[in-house]
Amino acid sequence: MVVLILALALGLGLGLGLRHPQGGGESPPTSSPSSTSTPLSPPTSVWKPTSGLSWQIDLTDTLDIDKNDPVVTPNVDVFDIDMFLHQNNSVVESLHKLGKRVVCYFSAGSYEPYRPDSYKFDKADFGDALDGWPDEHWLNISSPSVRAIMASRIEIAHKMGCDAIDPDNVDGYQNDNGLDLTSVEAIDFMTFLAKKAGGLKLAIGLKNAGDIVTDVLPLVQFAVNEQCAQYESCDTFSAFIKANKPVFHIEYPSDAPTISATESRSACSAPGTSKFSTVLKTMDLTGWVEYCDGHTASTDVVS
Ligand SMILES: *[C@@H]1O[C@H](CO)[C@@H](O)[C@H](O)[C@H]1NC(C)=O
Ligand SMILES: *[C@@H]1O[C@H](CO)[C@@H](O)[C@H](O)[C@H]1NC(C)=O
């Protein structure tokens, strides 16, 4: 037992000593090249990312990253990927080996008909369809049944070895949802999700939901924001930067993927965006990305 603990401590020490070149905070738990054959172990403490980390987000594809790949494109600190598209492959492990942190995305506040656990939802918990996504419904986020399903999703993220979760659609109260959702319910739901995640040593981000930033900021480790430059609301999220927590910021310039200097500037230099981690994307959130320095990249994906 003592030997085991010693070995573990040594292993951890070695792991922590290895920082990846881009300075993505502490190293992920499985990045030590000497431990390539050990199975993926869940994190032992909650990841606390700092503001300014670089990132990529692809919610459409399964990434094509092999365990032996020496690099990933783009070579950024953090990858935000669709949880279910990576549930049964080794992409999270491969990203960890490359020194990357992995944020696992799922929808927490909407029903999507095509997920492996979609059958679990009770139609009584459905609200209106989401604007632009007719198959997707707002969910009653106060329903114990919905919360149990989301708790199971967080357990999946934990089993996969994700460093964090990106629970989407917690801002139903800002939309026509057909359930009279309130911001008070959204805060309570985020509190529920954060407790569940923290219990499993997973970090959690606040997705959009500007009105509840003040209440939720102490519960979460980062923000993921869409279009605050477009809607002139980036100042709301700069509270995260003041707390040295990253704002993973996405804008969808109308001319993407051939973005003019003017469009890039209005996305990247909007008031309040100082130290934001900004990516310019097409609305379908594929592997293509442009950064504020004009650099573009495409992550390899499974076709
Ligand atoms: C992954 O495997 C689990 C367990 O076999 C299964 O229930 C689930 O549907 C699979 N997920 C996907 C996205 O294929
Ligand atoms: C949502 O769920 C809560 C808890 O079960 C319930 O009290 C409330 O009436 C539900 N809301 C709607 C609009 O059905």
From TrEMBL:
Where is each Glycoside-hydrolase family GH114 TIM-barrel domain found?
54-287
Q: Which GO terms describe its molecular function?
A: alpha-galactosidase activity
Which Pfam family, any one, appears in the UniProt record? Answer: Glyco_hydro_114
Signal peptide interval: 1-17
Residues covered by region (Disordered): 21-49
Name the record gives this protein: alpha-galactosidase
Give the first-level EC class, as a single word: hydrolase
Keywords (alphabetical) are: Hydrolase, Signal
**Protein EC:** 3.2.1.22
Q: Where is the composition biased (Low complexity)?
A: 27-45
Q: Which reaction does it catalyse?
A: Hydrolysis of terminal, non-reducing alpha-D-galactose residues in alpha-D-galactosides, including galactose oligosaccharides, galactomannans and galactolipids
